[in-house]
Design goal:
Helices cover 56% and strands 7% of the residues. The protein has 41 helices and 13 strands. A hairpin with a 2-residue loop joins strand 10 and strand 11. The chain is flat, with a radius of gyration of 35 Å.
């Protein structure tokens, strides 16, 4: 860039490249700053000269705010900018205004789209008008890198995981709340921007399938324009909009949803490579990514080098709150309905299933529609009842129903057209099921193309193709099963696609039996003994391999249980056997967690085998713990005793409390009981005991305070563990924390750094004994020189009157190092104490230290500096 600046009345001429609207505001701010510097002005001076507030000028010069034309004119007059230079500034402002308008349009359209609830609704009014009306905050757990004691996990609110400024991966099961979390986070951030309180990022929500095939800015522009067209976005967003920062100092937060919905590992890998290359490349400051997905094989996720969080289901005690928020939208007496609903859940196997956000939303709507009916007993039955309710609403949209509406549209084309319309309406669920099966098998053709290829949906003679496609589209969307995203009909939720794909596979007994055989007839050869496979079977060198898509297979199993039970009993026992090993038993436990109706004998067999492996010390610790967690997920009564046993097994190391965590995650109170027992067991390692106490803290157990108090007083533990327990007690606001910290700080058996750290904690509690404690520590000869000084500085900070005498005594103490003594004397100089000069002469046996003291006096303009300097010379 060549640049010539002619100051004063002459124009400011600059040759610049075409930065487009994206760089206009930054360029405008830069020119104003340069003119200010050339005039020798400060921001305060410019604000005064232009008669503007200093904050307004600061925001304009940093590119945060775009000046009004009158404001720009005031700044130009103050900076003496006229002629062509002034014209250039106004042109830059106009270009920036166009980008600002486009950004405003994006923000309002994205906010409108995000406020819609992503889950299906069936009752009058469809879904609640705002997603936040029924949203309840979930917790997330950091999978690795937490730095916590062994056996603990760093848990935090899911929104906090997205707000920490780092790229992250959010993992959750089917219907686990991932899409809702992204929408809530996007809504929160955009509402802040619209209210004028924007932060460091502007979010953009995009399906993972839109990435990986072309440059990121083009992919974002295309996906966002298509998605927001129906939410008030008038002009298509160009690629350059996402190729530059939305505002100066602000980056794009790209929320990538549905990675698992991409069919094929290779296609998912392309998306992850795109994300990583952008995140680690030249544009790393422009974008930050949050990726949401169901759990995928570890080999696929290795590409994504970032923090990983598991999104936890609702806690059991949260269900009443969630139900009340839904029933507030649907029923007149929400509290009574919520109480009845939770009682019904407790009497069924659905209590754990209802902790999944999607499941509880569907169950609440079913209960609101039929409060006197019992709830369904499995996930498949929930979907069957829910789809039936959707179908009922479809025919109640108008007094004459959808079939009569459609008849009016096609009647003028004759009887054949009318009959074709009736065939589509009668077989709509079969058409949707075929579409779901095609999508699950990887067919990415437009939905209407797939539907039109079906015999019952082919365009009849004499009906114009565009009108017939419009009719098919209205049928798909009127079903309540699909919605329009980016101009294309898509299933409201991935689990609905899986459910209908399973319906297509089970359209008759023969096809269902054949499908189950294909899914479960998976013999895998192995070169080494898999965990859980009995050694006596080693010579046969093969095992049963579990299916990969647990959610879809679960729907198949539920369907078969109601229509072809023999086919289930023929294939499922394979995975509940020693021939399948740990992988097969985990598949059974995954189905139990999903709410699939699994035969009791298969569950019992998988539980027995998991229990045996977990107690078998010939296996490595990781597999034993996985087997124990499988037992927990099967809701086996032996899980609590097994978790106690493993917690006391020193050979398991950091894995000792993993099973306890799993119990607590599933809402089993026995998990916290085991934590309490472990924390109080003096025969166990201190790390394990402290980790158990922290687990109690994480779940808000009322026993946590007493446990932390006892651990902090336990002389068997080292200082660091006792200190951590005391600080945890203080963080709980327990009144005993002050006495405990005071006692630990005075305990000469502890390391000096721990004693000082506890004293600082006492200060944060506002304890009146802090000053006396610091004074005592500064005089404690068992501490080293500089820790005694540190205690003295804390006394200075609290403004204690004994500070000067203490510094004088430390400076004269011959047991301290010379540098420490000199530092104490320097502090005495800063306090203006007259004894400082005499101290310098006493404690500085060589010229270098005398000179150092002289320089300190000089800094403070002390007249004694020259005398001390001559003495040193």
């Amino acid at each position: 860039m060549n640049e010539v600046e002619l100051r004063g009345q002459e124009p400011l001429v600059r040759k610049t490249g075409n930065k487009g609207a994206a760089g206009a505001q930054t360029e405008l701010a830069g020119r104003l700053r340069e003119a200010m510097v050339s005039q020798g002005m400060t921001q305060s001076g410019l604000a005064a000269s232009a008669k503007l507030s200093r904050a307004a000028v600061s925001h304009i010069l940093t590119g945060k705010n775009l000046p009004h034309p009158d404001t720009l004119a005031q700044l130009a007059r103050a900076l003496d900018i006229t002629g062509h230079a002034l014209t250039d500034l106004h042109r830059l402002r106009e270009r920036a205004v166009r980008r600002s308008r486009r950004l405003d349009a994006y923000l309002h359209a994205a906010l409108s789209a995000a406020r819609n609830h992503p889950y299906p609704g069936v009752l009058p009014g469809t879904t609640p008008p705002l997603l936040k009306n029924v949203y309840l905050r979930q917790q997330a757990v950091l999978r690795s890198g937490s730095g916590s004691p062994s056996g603990t996990r760093a848990s935090l609110s899911a929104e906090q995981a997205l707000s920490d400024g780092q790229m992250c991966l959010i993992l959750g099961g089917p219907g686990g709340g991932k899409s809702t979390l992204l929408r809530i986070h996007l809504t929160h951030l955009i509402e802040q921007w619209v209210a004028g309180r924007g932060g460091a990022a502007i979010p953009v929500l995009v399906p993972a399938a839109a990435l990986g095939e072309r440059p990121l800015n083009q992919a974002l522009a295309s996906a966002v324009s298509a998605e927001l067209a129906s939410h008030g976005l008038v002009d298509e967003i160009p690629a350059e909009f996402f190729a530059a920062p939305p505002l100066s100092g602000v980056h794009w937060l790209v929320l990538v949803d549905g990675l698992d919905e991409i069919v094929g590992a290779a296609a998912r890998q392309r998306v992850l490579r795109t994300v990583m290359r952008v995140a680690c490349g030249d544009a790393s400051g422009l974008y930050r990514f949050v990726v949401a997905s169901r759990p995928l094989p570890e080999a696929e996720l290795e590409e994504l080098d970032c923090l990983r969080y598991d999104l936890l289901p609702f806690a059991p005690e949260d269900l009443a709150t969630v139900a009340s928020s839904w029933f507030r939208q649907l029923l007149p007496d929400q509290d009574a309905a919520a109480e009845q609903f939770v009682q019904m859940l407790a009497r069924t196997r659905l209590l754990q299933l209802a902790r999944i956000p999607l499941m509880v939303s569907m169950l609440c709507q079913l209960h609101a529609a039929f409060p006197d009916r019992p709830l369904p007993s499995s996930r498949g039955q929930i979907y069957r009842c829910f789809v039936a309710l959707l179908q009922k609403r479809q025919h109640a949209l108008s007094p004459v129903g959808i079939q009569s509406q459609s008849h009016d549209e096609v009647a003028r084309y004759g009887r054949n057209a009318q009959e074709a319309t009736e065939r589509v309406l009668e077989g709509l669920h079969g058409i949707v099921a075929r579409l779901a099966a095609e999508r699950r098998n990887g067919n990415t053709s437009p939905a209407l193309d797939i539907v039109e290829q079906q015999p019952e949906a082919r365009c009849p003679i004499r009906v114009p193709p565009d009108e017939w496609r419009a009719f098919l589209s209205s049928c798909l969307l009127g079903s309540g099963l699909l919605t329009v995203r980016a101009g294309e009909p898509v299933f409201l939720h991935q689990t609905l696609l899986e459910y209908f794909a399973a319906l297509h596979a089970g359209r008759d007994h023969h096809v269902l039996a054949q499908t189950l055989h294909q899914v479960f007839d998976r013999r895998a050869a192995y070169r080494r003994l898999p965990p859980g496979v009995k050694r006596r079977l080693w010579h046969r060198r093969w095992c049963w391999e579990a299916p990969g898509d647990s959610s879809y297979v679960g729907f198949l199993l539920d369907l078969a249980q109601s229509s072809n039970r023999e086919s289930v009993t023929a294939v499922l026992p394979r995975l509940a056997s020693s021939r399948a090993g740990l992988q097969g038993w985990r598949f059974i436990s995954a189905q139990v967690r999903l709410g699939t109706q699994i035969p009791r004998d298969a569950v019992d067999a998988a539980a027995d085998l998991s229990h045996g492996l977990a107690r078998d010390t010939t296996y490595d610790g990781e597999n034993r713990v996985v087997a124990a967690c499988t037992l927990v997920e099967l809701y086996d009564q032996r899980a609590a005793n097994l978790s106690r046993e493993l917690a006391r097994d020193a050979s398991l190391g950091d894995l000792r409390l993993t099973t306890v965590w799993k119990l607590a995650d599933l809402g089993d109170p026995r998990g916290l009981d085991v934590c309490h027992e472990v924390a109080r067991d003096g025969a166990l390692d201190g790390d394990v005991r402290l980790a158990a106490a922290w687990n109690l803290l994480q779940f808000g157990d009322p026993r946590a305070a007493d446990v932390c108090h006892d651990l902090a007083r336990d002389a068997v533990l080292d200082g660091l563990r006792r200190l951590a327990a005391a600080w945890s007690l203080a963080d709980l606001g327990d009144p005993r924390a002050g006495d405990l910290c005071h006692c630990l700080a005075r305990d000469v058996t502890l390391d000096s750094q721990f004693r000082l750290a506890t004293a600082w904690k006492l200060a944060t509690l506002g304890d009146a004994r802090t000053a006396d404690l610091c004074h005592s520590l500064a005089q404690d000869a068992t501490l080293d020189s500089f820790r005694r000084l540190a205690a003295a500085w804390k006394l200075v900070k609290v403004g204690d009157a004994r500070t000067a005498d203490l510094c004088h005594d430390l400076a004269r103490d011959p047991t301290l190092e010379d540098q420490a003594r000199l530092t104490a004397a320097w502090k005495l100089v800063e306090l203006g104490d007259a004894r400082a000069r005499g101290l310098a002469l006493d404690i500085a046996p060589d010229g270098d230290l005398w000179l150092a003291m002289s320089w300190k006096l000089t800094e403070l303009s002390d007249t004694r500096a020259d005398h001390l300097s001559r003495s040193a010379t």
